[in-house]
Each structure stands twice: as C-alpha cells, then as structure tokens.
Prior knowledge:
The structure holds 2 protein chains of 2 kinds.
Chain A: H1 2-18, H2 20-27, H3 39-52, H4 55-69, E1 73-74, H5 83-86, H6 95-115, H7 122-143, H8 167-184, H9 203-220, H10 226-239, E2 249-251, H11 263-271, H12 273-276, E3 279-280, H13 282-290, H14 296-299, E4 300-301, H15 321-327, E5 338-339, E6 351-354, H16 356-369, H17 376-390, H18 402-411, H19 418-432, H20 437-447, H21 476-479, H22 481-491
Antiparallel strand pairs in A: 1-3, 2-6, 4-5
Helix pairs in contact in A: 3-6, 3-7, 4-6, 4-11, 4-20, 6-7, 7-8, 7-9, 8-9, 9-10, 16-17, 16-19, 17-18, 19-20
Chain B: H1 2-32, E1 36-43, E2 54-57, E3 63-65, E4 71-76, E5 81-85, E6 92-95, E7 101-105, E8 116-118, E9 124-126, E10 134-138, H2 140-143, E11 161-164, E12 175-178, E13 189-192, E14 195-196, E15 211-212, E16 226-232, H3 235-238, E17 249-254, E18 264-276, H4 280-283, H5 300-305, E19 319-321, E20 327-329, H6 336-341, E21 344-356, E22 360-372, E23 379-393, E24 397-411, E25 415-416, H7 424-429, H8 461-466, E26 471-486, E27 491-510, E28 521-544, E29 548-573, E30 584-609, E31 613-624, E32 633-644, H9 645-648, E33 655-669, E34 682-688, E35 691-696, E36 700-701, E37 709-722, E38 727-746, E39 755-778, E40 782-799, E41 806-811, E42 824-829, E43 836-842, E44 851-852, E45 860-868, E46 873-883, E47 886-896, E48 899-902, H10 903-910, E49 925-926, E50 930-931, E51 940-941, H11 943-953, E52 959-961, E53 964-975, H12 978-981, E54 988-1002, E55 1022-1023, E56 1030-1040
Helix pairs in contact in B: 10-11
Amino acid sequence: MKRKYLVHIGASLMLLAASCTKDLEELNRNPNNPTSVPPLTMLSNAEVATATLGRGSIRRTNLAFDMMAMQQLASTETLDGGEGDKYLKNDNAGNLFDDSYGLLVNNIVQLMEFVKNDPAQVNLLSAARIWKVLVFQRLTDAYGDVPYFDAGKGYVSGNFAPDYNKQSEIYADMLKELSEAVAAFDAAKNPLGTADVVYNGDLSKWKKLAYSLMLKLALRMEKQDIAKAKEWAAKALAGGVMSLPEDVCAIRHSAERNAVANPITYTFNSYDLANEKIKISKYFLDYLTNTGDPRRRVFVSTVSGDTALASQKGLPNGLDANSFKAAYPTIPLKDFSTLNTKTILQLTAPTFLLTPAEVQLMQAELIVKGWTTGDAATMYAAAVTNSMKQQAMYGDNGVISAQQIQAYLAANPFPATAADQLKALGNQYWVATFLNGWESHANWRRTGYPALTPVNYPGNITNGQIPRRLTYMLSEQVNNPKGIQSAITNQGKDEYMTRVWWDKQ
Amino acid sequence: MHLQHTIPSVFRKWRLAALTLVLLISFSGAAWAQKVQLSGTVTNEKNEPLPGVTVTVKGTVTGVVTNADGKFTINASPTATLVFSMMGYESRQVPVGNQTALQVKLQDQLTQLSDVVVTAMGIKKENKVLGYAITQVKGESFTKAREANVMWGLQGKVAGVNVTKPVTGASGSSRVVMRGGDFGASQPLYVIDGIPMVSGNKGSIDNMYGGKDAGDGIGSINPDDIESMEVLKGNTAAALYGARASNGVIVITTKKGTARKGIGVELNSTYSIENPIDYTAKDYQYEYGIGTGGKKPTTAAEALAAGRSSWGAKLDGSSVIQGDGVERPYAARKNNVKHFYDGGNTFTNTVALLGGNENLNFRFSFGDMNNHDIMPNAGIRRNNFTLNTNAKLGKNLTATINAQYIREKAENRPWLNDYTMNAAVAAYLMPTNYDIRDWSNPRKADRSENLWTTNNYWANPYFMAYETPNWDKSNRFIGSADIKYDFDSHFYARLLTGTDFSNTLGQFLWSDGIGFYPKGQIGMSNAYRSEFNAQLMAGYNNSFGKNWSINAFVGGNTMKRSSNNTSASGDIFIVPGFYAIGNTTNKSGGYNLTESQINSVFGSAELGFHNYLYLTLTGRNDWFSTLDPKNNNIFYPSVGASFVISDAWKMPEWISFAKVRGSWAQTGSDQDIAAYQLNLTYSLPNSLNGVPLGGIGTSSVPNANLHPQLTTTYEGGLEARFFNGRVGIDLALYSRQVTDAILNSPISITSGFTSTYMNAAKIGNTGVELLLTGTPVRSKDFKWQTSYNFAYNKSEVKALINGQQSMVIAQNRSGLWGDGGVPSYVYAEVGQPYGVLYGSTYTRDAQGRIVYGDNGLPIPGKVARLGNGIQPMVMGFNNTFTYRQWSLDFLIDGKFGGKMFSGTTNLAWYQGLAKETLAGREGGIIGEGVTADGKPNTVKVAAEDYYKFVANNIAEQFVYSSSFVKLRQIVLGYSLPQRWIKGSAFQAVNLSFVARNLFTIYKDVPVVDPESGYTTGGGQGFEMLGMPAVRSFGFNLGVKF
C-alpha cells in the first residue's frame, strides 16, 4: 500500500521534471511582439523616424540649438532651450547622435541584413542604402567622426562599442554606396509600393534623391579634395538630380498619433513653446521683411496666428530674461512672433528632408564656380520658385501665387558678381532650409552665408563665436571610451568650436 | 523498475528496525519504571498561561502539548527529566523527582539564538542540527514601534542583514541585502508559511530623472500577523528554495490559532506622529538673501530669474520683491523643510480572533493602517484580512490553510530626486529669505503653476501636493494550503500550493497648467501580477539503533509567474481641470503580458549521529523558462555539518551549549531576468496614413547563450551559550562567490542598442557576522537583556563583461542640463567593492595641496574613485530592561565605512545656501592651495563665482562619510499586573510609549540625514532632494481578551 504511494509520488516528480523543457520553451515565446516584421515596414519606419526622431532631438538640437545658432529662431532661455542662441553648454547636444543610432541606424542595418541576400529584394536594399546615407550625412555633418562601418551591429555581429570612423572615410563610402545603390535598382524586381511613404515606390525619384545627395556630399568636401568633389558632382548631375516640386523628399505627417505627427508641432504643443520659449529671430524676420519674401507669412505669425506684417516682432538673439526686460520694458515676450501656428505648426505639416530648391541652389553655385555649365540665374529663379511653391504643402495658408514669386524675383534678382551671387545663393539656402536647422548650419559652415553676427552672452563656451559642431552623447565617454578617444585624437576636442573634416580650413 | 524493487525493501528493513525501536520505547516505561502521572501548568513570566508548549520526556519521543489553559498531563518516571519547549521561549528542563503537580514558568527567549527555528519548506527544526546560520526575529519586535513597511523595522536587528529605508515616504519600498548580494536586485526571497511571495519592487526611483517609489510586496504584510521571521542568510537552506533564494531567504511564519476555551480576542493599536528632521536651519546661511552679484532683485522677473540664487545682498529686513510680485521683508526665513513637511501621523489597529480545539483551530485578523504622510495630501491606507486555519482531519491528515486579502490605497506617492514634480526642491532650495508657505497658492490666476523660478521644471511644492492627484489602489490575495499525510510515523507526503496575486489600478497625472507641460497628460494602468507555486514532496524520518537518525525528503516544485498590464493615456487636456483620458486630444493605449516559469526537483537528507553530529545534504535542479532550452537548467548541491560539542562531551557546568557548524552550498539563478530576452523582437506600434511602421522592439541586445549563474558559498560558524543561557555567541564566517553572473551592462548606443545581458561577470563577498547576547542582570523583579550584532562584508567585483574594467551602474541627477551641480556616478569596478562612488576631484600637487589656475579657481582633476557607496559594516545594539510590570527597550544601530555624494549639499553650494558659502562674500575669496608652479595661490575670486565653480566642477567636495550611529528605537512599556485584571475579561493589557529614529548620535553629512538615499536600486551612495528623514513618537496598546 505504502509502496504504491511512493511509486505515485516518485512518478509525479519524474513527470514534473520531464515535462519541463518543451513547455518552458513554449512559454518563453513573446506574445506581445513578433520576432519578425515584413522588411518593407522597416523602410516605412526609417523614413518616418528620420523626420520625427525624438522630442529631445527636435527641441534641443534642431530648434534650440542649430536654428538658434543660425539666428532663424531666438529665445530668452539660458538652459534647456536657449543654448544655441547663446552658445552655452548643452549636455543634450548629443540627442541627435543618440536618436540617429537608436531609432534609425539600428533598423536600417537590420533591414539590410534581412534583404541583402535576396535578389528579389534588391530595390528595398538599394532604398535602404540610400536612406542610410541620408541619415549619416545629417549625423556626420553635425558631429564629424562617428561610428559608421560597424554601427548598428550590436545584434548582427555583437559589436557593442564600434570604432569611430574618420569623416573622410565615411564620405568616401557614402558616395560609393549611393552610386552602387542607384545602379542596382531593377524595376523587374519586387517593388517598394505604398510602403515607401516618401515616393510611393517610384524608383526614378529614388534615383534623383540618390544623385541629389551625391551632389550635396560632393560640395561639402570641396575644401578637402576639390578634384574628387568635382568628379562626384559631375557624376551626380549626369545621373539626374531633383528639379520638380514632386521630387521633394518629405514626410507627410498625420494628426492621428503623436508618434507620426509633425515633430516640431508636437514638441511645441508638448512644451508650450510658442508663448515664451521659442520666437522668430529678429535677424531672420528682418531679412524676410527687407527682401519682401512671401515666405514670411508662411513661416512667421503671432502666437494667435496673425501674419500681418505690422503685428510681427522678431526677438534679437542673445537675450535672457533680464536683458530682455531691459531692452523691452513694456512689451511682453508673448507678443513676439513665433512659428506660424496656421501653417508650420499643424500636426499634419510635412517635414522636408531634401528639397529641389536646395539642389538647384547647389547647382547654381556649381555654375558660378565653373564646375559645370548652364545659366546660374535661371537655376536661381527655379530654386526660389520651387521653394515658394513647396510652401503649398502646408495647406491653403502656405500657397504663394506665381505673381508673388515673380514680384519677389524682380525685387531680388540674381546679382552680377560672383561674390554677390554666392552670397545670394547662401542666403536663399538659409531661407529654403528653414526648419531643417542641421542643414542650414552645415551649409553656413561651408559657405559662410548668411553672414551672421555672433552674440557674446556671458558664460558662453565658444568665446563669442558661432558653434561649428554639436558635441557627442555624454554616455559614449563611459560606454565607448576607446572609440570616442580616437575621434578626439583625430578630430580635436569634443567641443562646439572643433571643426569637422570638411570644415577644416 | 529497479527502484521500485530495491528501495521499498530497504525501507521495509528500516521500518522493522524503527518499529522495534518505537515498541521498545513505548513499553520501556511500563517495563522499567513505575510511571507517575504528572500534571501541571505552564505560564510565561507574567504568569499568563501558555498554550501549545511541547512537553517531552528527555531522551524519548513521548510528548504532549499544553492546552488552552497551559495545562498538561504526562506519564513519566521520577528519574526522568521533562523538557518544556516553545518558540520564542527559553526551553526548560525539569527533573520529575517525586512531584506530581508542576508549575513551570517559561522565560522569554533571552537571546536570538533559538532552539527551534523554521527552516526551508516551513519545517521546524532544532537549531542544533543546522549547518548554517539562521536568525530568528520575533514578530513582536515589529508591532510596537512600527514602521509602515515591516522590513524597515528589521534594521539593526540581525547581524549581516543590511536594511535600507529610502527617504520615499511611508508608501516606499525597502532594500534588504544579505552578505553583499550580486549584480542584480540582490533582495532576498520572502516566504510566507512555505509559499514564496511576490516581493519585488513595484517601481523605484530613477537615479537621473527621479520618480516615485511604488512600494514592494513585502511592505504590505501586517506585522501583527507575524509570529516569527527567520532569516536564512546562507545558501544551504536556500538550496531548497531554488534560484530566487540565491540572495538569502526570509521565512515568515504567521500567527496561528491555538486550542483554547472560547474565542480569544487580541487588539493592538498604535498611534504615532511623524516629524521631519530639518537640518537646514543649522546648516544653511541666513545672512544673505535672494539675488545675484550681491544685489537684491528689483522686479518680479529678476526675482524669478534669481529664484535659484541666494547670492544677493546682506539680509536687512527691507521690503524686497519676490518672484510672485509681492514685496516681503528681506529677512531670514528658516525651516522651510519643517514648515512644508510637518504633520504626518499613522494610526494602526489590528484585531485578531483566535480559537479552536485540538483538531481545528483558527486565527483571523483584521488590520487597518491609516497613514498621513509628512508630504501634504499624501498617504497610504492598508487593510489586511488574514485567516489561518489548522485542521487535523482524521488520524493521518493535517492541513494548514492560510489566506490573506490586502487592500491598499496610496495617494500622491512623493516624487523625488529630479526637480520635476519634486516638492523637496522648494523645501530645500528656496532662497534664504523665502518662506515656503508664501507659495501655498499652487496656481496663478491663469491656472498655470505658481512657479518660483524661471525654470519651469522646478516644482511649486503645493502644486505637486494638491493639484496633481496621483494614486494607486491594489487588491492582493495571498493564499496557501499545506496538506500533509502521514502514512505512518516515518513516511509522509506533503502538498504545498499557494498563490500571490495582485491587481493594481493607478493614475498618473500632469494636470493642466503644470509648468513643464502646460497642456497636461494623464495615464492609467491596470496591472495584474501573480505567482503560483505547487510543490509535492515525500519525506521519511526515522532513527536506527541508539545512534543514527535520518530525516529526508524529495520533492518537485513548479512556479509560474505572470504579469499583465493594460495601460491607457491621454495627452493635452481639452477642458481644464477635468482629469480623464476622455478629455484629452491624443489618446493611446497598450497591453503587455509576461509569463515565466521555473520547474524544479529537489531533495534533502539529514543524517544524525548520537544527537550531536548532523550532516545535511541537499540537491536541486531548476529549469528556467527564461533561458534557451539548451542551457536552461542547472543542478546545485549543498552539504552542511553540525557538531554539538556540548552534547558530545561532558562540558563544564558553565557551558550550556556549544556547537560548530560548516557548510558548502551552491545556488543557480537566472537573476530573475525578464521573459523573452532571447530573440530580437520587433514592434509595429504606429502607422502613418495606414502604412504600418515596423522596427526593432527592444533596446537590449538579446543573448540566446545566457545560462544560469552560480553562487558558491562556504560558511563556518560557532554557536555557544554559557551560564545557563545568560551569555551567548553566534559567529559566522562566510565566503560567497558568484560566477557567470548575469549582468545587464550598458553598451554604446552606436551599436544600435543601449544594453545587453551577458554571463561574464564575477563578484565575491566574504565576511563575518557576530551576535553576542547576554542577560547581565536577572533578579526576581529586574532583568536586563542585551544583544549586540555586528557584520562586516567585503565585496569585490572580479570581472565585468567584454574585459571591461568598470561600468556605470548609476548616475546622479546633479550637473545635468546646465541646472547646476556636478555629476557623480556609481561604478562597478574590477578589484573594488560593488558600487563605488566616482566623481571629479580637485587637482592636487605631490603634497596633496589643491592646485589653482591663474583665474584663482581650483583646476578640476580627473573623475576618480571617491569611496564605497555601500557601508560594509553594520551593527546593532539592543537592550531590554524589565522591572516588574515595566519594560524599556532601546536599539542603537549604525553603519560604517561608506561614502555618500550629497546632491542636496551640492546644489546648496551652487545656490549660495550652504553655510560654507559665507566665507569671502564680502571682498572675495582666495582658495587655499597653490598654483601650478607650487607657489601659494593669491588670486582673489568673487565668492559667487568661486562656490558656483566648485559646485559645478568638483564632485569630491560633496562626498561625505555615510557612517552614522542612531538611537533607532525606544519602547517603554507597562503591563497591567495579572492580579488587577484577574476575573475581568482581559487576559493581558500592555501600554507602551514608542519612538523611532529618535536621535542621530553621529553623522558627517550636512543638510540631510545620512540615510537619505532615494532608491533601493543601484544608486546606493547617492542623495539628492529626497524627503527629509522622519522621527516618530506614539503610543501602543496591546490587549488580549
């Protein structure tokens, strides 16, 4: 009798142990998240995330740093929002670095891993390669040397602390990637289709994007290797670059959810930035006003959305709460102009990543510099026209009529001398890349336009000069000390005034 | 099967032998002696009858238990000796002689060296058989001078248990670490009546961006329900609880009903008031007020801009505008901490009903704790309903069924550490001429937060207290059934099942108008957490001949855990002041399910020789669902030996008991890593105009090669009692090594991920634990009992992942985002104790003098190690004096050998609040030290520039010793004499004055209490803007009917 009990107990225990492994494995299948997704969805994600990033990147690197350093925006804040206006220390200058790797590079590398050996997916692979260049161009232009070749491979190859690569090498590889990716497109293979939220699978537009990027990269390296720069620029132009409004590389946002809404609008809403935090720079407003630019009423309004010129006030750069009060004892900060709440600050406003206007301004510059032939004035007019027409994507309040464009071009004709022409092109680029502060900042560093007057706010860490790069993410000093040290050895101190490779004189 | 044939036949032989033995014993009395029937009563020192005392005839298995009136009847020969034993009392031996009626008084256990302890699986054992250290703490040491979280009351009471009470308010969690822990949470496993409970922290405070402490599972247990708490520090016992016990086990035995006449009623009530300890009046300067550059503000805007600056003019009582536009006297306003936080109180009541007979007994209790925290409008209310039943169902079957239902509601758990939502920011950092009560309007006329600086993250404390109603409510059920069937007196089978199940509904709110997010946000979450255990075991015990005994069991256990979260949130309120998700512009939601399981088989055999030598062997194999099947299981054995010297040889009279013990044990663990860590997972959280957006869904690199880590412990110990138990010693030495430690290490974001789990780390702890007990005075009316415990743990990190020499465990909030202050870090560093503080230092010359630059400011040196974030040495000194009906109990405790970075002091320097910043206010300061060429520094710097520079650049300046000695607890009690209440309904009435955290005898850090850590996580050694430490006083009433 008792023996039977023992046998029962013993058997139950054995069963318990034996039943283990299979059930346990089953239990450890993640019910919340899939272990794979259609690779195309990752392209869609990378495209959108390149625009949305995180609120930190948008606020602390684009709005409050680069756009303020470029005197497109201004603020009286001295911390968490006014650093670029006054060249103060900002530990979050690394936000773009962080988001680029953590939201974009990780997914693009994984996507490429999925499709690299599948000939049918060559179009997706090429699109991913081109998009990766778009992401890295913004990233390396902002920081200089960054991890590139081994980046984003924590899962793929277990590399947890990638080497930092020299910007010169990154540029060389990006150019190679663009030319190979374009060559590999094959209309007979799997299409991108609607998953491509930028071009809806139109490969001819992807080619234009790739060649436009190639042109931009070529121009950036003119000070370092003018021969190579010319060679790549010629290749880009021969391949065909953006020229029409529909070539624009833009993300069309939706108001459905925060994550896919216009990131600037979302950030403004979240932090109530329009009232007293972020204002239009007086310098920028004056420039638009003095040139009679119709884009002024698209870009600038009062907090309530009034765009009448008489209602606008631009905030000078470099003021804090005290000096503002001293300068404007009777005007509340709220009354100063901000981003137009009826155009730009809509949740559905698009984000422009690369525009035909930028490309045509670069082309005009090449003509002026004699790298290529053509009529620079025509190209200038086309660029301005494209930029102005593009504003219609902000809705009815963004529409600029043909007559207004003509009037503007008549009032601001392409100048006669080469020096003035380059200046005009640089200033136009500055206006055309409004809201893409990283790009405005990069082009300013390359061309010196617009000719900004720096502020000299007490406690600034640049000796009263406009910063020339962003600083790395602080955590890199702990998590990748060897990598960051090699970058510092090669490039110089991790400071605002250190010049990146292509910016070195 | 081979087994079936052989084992039982062996058993049959044993049983034959055993039967013979039992028969011999049974008949021996009749055969050899004239047995006498003895009866008697057993009482405690206060002459209250003691039911449930075991009375045995020494050297036999004959025994009875006293009834409800403490009475017993037993047959014994005049030459025999009776042994009276009961948990919590000194056992007593009484020779029978020619007595027939006995009055036996048992004394409260003098020492924590108890005779009978509850070990693994809830099995009561004689302490002498154990090869490892176990310490018993009686329930009543938590019930008089109470803490809202029962574990906070353990501090200083057990050698080798390092208890940390973070300054998170009454609803916070505890950090309990034995023998140094490992790289994980390091907290012990809590087991209630044999069933492991879900004890983990429900949300700790982030080191960088603050947060609230959502409490822990153990904190909601009602101390009045605890009979005893056994602390199993070593791994030998833990081997039987498996993986989760690798950092020790705390076994809680709840109170049971006893056989008695009628229904007993016990009432325990405590009312206490809690006051914040405010050091600011003493450690701040009150000579200079708000302003910058030595000037007062002249406009409200200037005052707002200077809100974080007491670098103004000398306080002169003149009328000066403040940030709200009101002019007030420019004069010292002290004690903002006290003014804001005063007035906490806690009222606790527990009523217990108990009753039963020999076959069935029960205890039911209802507990109500109602706490108003020192944070205004915050508090926690907790109800515990507990039912314990024991039933003897027939001859062979016994069942113990326990059920607890716990209801808890916490309101406005305080936010700490960061500035955002943290009321302490204003309490500690307002300018010296600001009275916090002047800011008691949470909102301005336009509903926006009434901010006192231009930085909109710097909270108005009254807004956080009254205008952001956050709360959580939980319902929890803990139930267990322990059913034992005795086949005969040797074989038994036991089924133990239990569950701990809770549901928490919570609201998180940023109400509209809040400074940093004016449109507002709301989040709701509904979280289920459960753990289910089922365990079946079979055991055998017997003795063979005169010399040998065996006590063995085998069993299997399956543990299932799941958590199940539904959340919804809304962003941007539409109608101001109406806080519902439906009233928001952007709504979103989510759901997450996590399940894991551990299956185990285990066995234990304890061999006894001559009642003085014992050998215990255990083995266990665990299978983890969280790991890959190819490496998801681990076997770990243990062996322990105990030798009772005093029973083996005749000892001198003055040695009452002496035992040496030793053990070696291993424990495997999956470090409680979350489920689903093995594969890369993706998510599709969003879509854009119908196009789904897919991406990698994890920021941690999955590692399919993870396998269990292994902890190996050696332990040796000595336990002895002298002079009839008047003096006792318990000494333990241990070495504890964790290999293949699972470590979640941060990695470079450029890898595309932020962290990864790896098995590569190693950590070791060695240490000593000492408990000394004594009863220096013991007369008829007066008794003085004392005990001293001491522990020293030396921890050493031996390896990290990827050959790294160091790794950041935590970074403090100070010095981020240009808010002032200097960063500090906690590192795990190879060759150092776990958790060393790091921060920037002064540059010093060869002679140790501070080196200054040409500008007269110290030159910041490198980021260097600044000390041990966790104190390696912990001690407690407990004394109880009893005089007739009076008793006085006090506890002094201390921790030594650690350092802390005081973020509050750091900011107090930056803002010119600290007393140290007075030097040089007029005319500037010349820093003491040298210039680069070795000549004395002679450059004078304005005080504001100097101190701000130090505050922003030199972490070393703000590192203090975290050593302290405190008068932790006082209980002054009076019991009504039995003669007064005899004949009344009362059986016992006890009234006490109680106090906790009464007085700090020694500390180093200014401005705050040395125990001001805000987290139970990795940031040990950090302090910044937590709640002030609390001193409490109150009264306790205990009544038994």
